[in-house]
Batch of 4 targets.
Target 1
Amino acid sequence: MLLSLVLSVLNIQGKFYRQIQNFIEILIMRIRSFLALVISFCITLAFVPLRTYAFSERGNAQFTDVVNTGKANDCPALDASLEGSISISNGDSLKGICMHPTEVYVKVPGSKRQKADFVSTKIISPRNNTTVTEVYGDIDSGKFTEKGGIDFQLITVLTPGGLEVPFAFSAKDLTANIPSSLEPGTEVSGSTFTPNYRTGDFLDPKARAANTGVEYAQGLVALGGDDEELAKENIKVDVNGTGTIKLSITSVDSDTDEFAGTFEAIQPSDTDMGSKEPVDVKIIGELYGRKA
């Protein structure tokens, strides 16, 4: 009696174990293909090198590490030893173009003893917000045309003689001929549109503005308007200009299609809405960009 009971219990346990074993085998067969896919994906990731972009490193910075440090005004940087190349063809785009001014020169009027020449200046306003960045555009027929971005900054510099010179550092409507490849030593020249430092809605101390219907000082109209200098002060106009720019490539990362280098731009200064003659301003600084 006791022996029969023990045998029946062992038989039940054996059937239970066999059912569990059959269930595990069926489960493994069903997920075998999925496991093979997961393992293949992990092996692929282990052997494929990750592409690190200079701009992503900049974008991943913590706010507390950047605020009030001036780092937000810097352009992404590439290793100077990178000597790759980027092929350029019609239909391509460039984006993330960044130009950070590091030197600003103003052409002062000459005299009998000295000809007009550029003198070094100091940026006094704003100090940490001078960079043109995230500029992008398309390439067609071997020419790059700017389409948008943070493409101008208002800057004021101080000359050694104490003259404050405001100007609009601009990459607006940048057009330049682009070669079939970008590599160290490549130079690209083009032109830019330089907007007026102040808009037509700017109100001066006498509340005059070109777009508000009050463009002259009422009390000075009795002078008859014959004085050219007074007319320039009285009547406000928008005076835009054009500039030239040269981009010099010094390093190229072929893996990420990024390039870096320097730039040199010459643009007109502010005219105080037509009352002053503009002077030439030369801006030199760091360059960064990438192929879209």
Note: The CA atoms of residues 98 and 133 lie 4 Å apart.
Target 2
Amino acid sequence: MGMIDGLPPLREVIRAHDLVAKRQLGQNFLLDLNLTAKIARLAGDLSTCDVLEVGPGPGGLTRGLLVEGARRVLAIEKDQRCIAALEEIAAAYPGRLTILNADALQVDVSKYLTPPVRVVANLPYNVGTELLVRWLTPANWPPFWQSLTLMFQKEVAERIVAKTRTENYGRLALLAQWRCDPRIVMTLPPEAFTPAPKVHSAVVHLTRLDQPRYPANEAMLARVTTMAFGQRRKMLRSSLKALRPDIEAKLREVGIDPTARAEEIGLDKFCALSLILQ
């Protein structure tokens, strides 16, 4: 575990502040500072960006972001126990680290960040997907961020980048790929973390598109995909029949076989369907 700055190794920080990871907070600390610096580099050039980090814990990734030249980092940490360790990092990087002891689900980050903004985080497992969905569904598009570089459980990462006719393909893939270019850029084994989770993890980098990939009615797209994948073993003529009585005709109108199942249908077809059903 190499050193990337003049601050103590993370194991010493954790010991000094008695930071035992809490399962109820979804915490798994990444202690290898070479790995955290690598994740920071995967986010791209940070020198002209503000960076939002959620769930920094003892600050391993925070240090990576600052070492790799982030203009400024906003770190939102719910766990009061971690704040003192983060304040030590802030003292070592004057004016470049702002710490909020808060729940990221409750914070309006826009008042703390100056564009351009990148989001880079080892997200707490218990809120990671919810935060991603919120970042992908703002009231107005494009959103406040340019890119998201996020750590998830590997199975969640695979759902984000999944293609049609695969078991991981579903609403999360459609939502991410409608407005972004997502790709898995790194995988990590359980032993990279303390405590070691039961599953592998992966970093997903999502670059936003200025406009959605295909025209669609957002509300109807959400409704259609929820119904279709909520009963993914059913034919679409059955899973979507509650939408309207002529659903089979509407499916055919956009080139969808009414006997097809949700996992067989690409994003372009779902978007087209949302427009004629709006």
Note: The longest strand covers residues 180-188.
Target 3
Amino acid sequence: MKIPKLGLRTWTILLFVLVTIAGFSLLNFFYQKSQNESKALISSLSIVEELKDLDSPSPRDRTTAGNVISALHQYKSANHLLWARANRRNATILFFLILISSAIIIFFVCKISQPLRELKAATDLIRKGNFSVHLPETGLYEMKMLKNSFNMMSFELEAIQTKLLVTEKELIWKDLSRILAHEIKNPLTPIQLAIQRLEEKLESEPDTIKELLPQSIQIISQEVENLKLLAQDFSNYAKISQAKKEPFNPAAYLEEICRSYVSDYKLNLSMVPNERIEFDKTHFYQIVTNIIQNAIDASQPESPIHIDLIRDRSYLVLSIRDEGSGIETEDLPRIFEPYFSKKGKGTGLGLALVKRLSEANNAVVRVKSKLGEGSEFILIMEA
């Protein structure tokens, strides 16, 4: 039959019981010993026999009485010393009993606290994503079991993380390959058709090819430009770096950005002046231009775009609102997802880029939209 191992609580209780029993046994032993010595001292004084012969106050009687009184004083002194010694002994035993109990408590606290500190440090590493942490399975029985369970959990989490990373990479590459194939195929089709028309004319009507050539060159140039924009979009999304924040006036910078649009589009600006933010200027430019371009694509040519910058307590809030077609309710939760787009052109990376750049600068981007009435993108920045 396998003998079960004693747990920490059992060992602690047993040790305290043993120390307490041993301590009180010692106290009882010395107390009984002191009592016996006191009784022996009393019995050694034959006071009654000595006083039987004291019938008359003779000189001998007085001497006997003096001896008895002296013996009584000696007894009292000896008895006082005996009990004082017993009290000191008992106090010493109690003191050492307390010391031993305290040492036991300190020992077990140290035995428990050190592994707990190790566990806390290990859980902090787990929380930061380091699942390869491993604890030495040492210490008390319960701590060994706890560390063993923790190590098993860490190993399983590491295995799951590895599988998830592999699966995620495969899904990303599959999704990216599908999107790239689709996006590249769109501009390649007109290029191919333009070249085919040139080849047909070259064979059938070589004299008229000059008439078709400018149009074909324009088509090819336009689609090559689209391919360059596609590559640029993917490059911008992939290489987002850490924000290099600097203080600047957002109202003045917004006016500067909008100068490129005011000649072709109707922009209504309303901004609080003399405010400053800590933001990466390049990121700010990319966020604003992507949202404005998104508003232009969703609006009619003469439809206005409203740009407002206001202060709300300790925040600056930038609102870019259009009066375009709006976004369907079921599409709102997905508009910041990479590659999600309902437009006829584009990669679906513009708004995903806006979200990533906003988060890199500790800003929050929100959207409100109603189908048929337009959309409003809101950027909330720390002022």
Note: The chain is about 65% helix and 10% strand.
Target 4
Amino acid sequence: MSLNFKPLSMEVMGDYNAMFDLCTDKTSDYTFVNIWAWSDERRYELALAHDLFWPRTGGASPALWAPVGDWNRADWEKTLPELFPGGADFERVPEGLALQWSGLFGDRVELEDQRSEWEYVYLAEELISLKGNRFHKKKNLWRQFYRSYESSYRELSAGDADEILEMQQLWCEWKSCDDIPGFRAENHAIYRALKNWEHFPDLICGALYVGENMVAYTVGEPMGGDMAVIHFEKGLGDYKGVYQAINQTFLEKSCSGFKWVNREQDMGEEGLRQAKESYNPVKFLKKYRVKWKG
């Protein structure tokens, strides 16, 4: 049996989300919002086989990702040899599935830690209260923002997409997005997500305003019931403390019902790693590169 891959489309979203809900170890890479947003960059394709969706990326660096569905019901001893008799490499495999395969197949699989893809998870209550010495610097910057500017917070909906993209354009001009491939790709991902907001009713979005001007925004979504994932967060550099302010205020006003906050991975960028670690993560959602030897 061979996999019949087709380009990602909105038509599969309902079926995909139903299978993603069955995964016992969810990571934000695999939410439909995420793969849709980044699909022009990564050229996602999906194949359906053995009651599982099999994602892969195309473009310059094609790669298989972990299958999406009910891992506990899958007959792995039949499925992997049938679909990949000559072996296969899988990227960004959530820890739960990687360990399941390792326990089942032993030395027929090899695991390689992908530290740059680990997702940072925080207690929402801690990022809202900012209590204690661990958050002293964050709280000071948060206070400076609210003391310095007459600001307000608004929850946003699909009708506000163009306004967010106007602020995103200002951010991109500040950061010279057109000259930096990573920023340019992210900017396009933000555009794809927000321009299709009507298809994503679970998106959570909020923004800070100084006067009538948007100065920061956050876009996220629920994952697994008790976790909020932050996909995009931007603030204008002219406003000191704006990132600390939008981080805390978005969670307090729009995500207070969640226990966990997932701020995704650092992609191996040292500055981003330091920034994410500075908020004191309480755990990581680990991922591995898995080599199935066939």
Note: The chain has two domains: 6-118+287-292, 120-264.
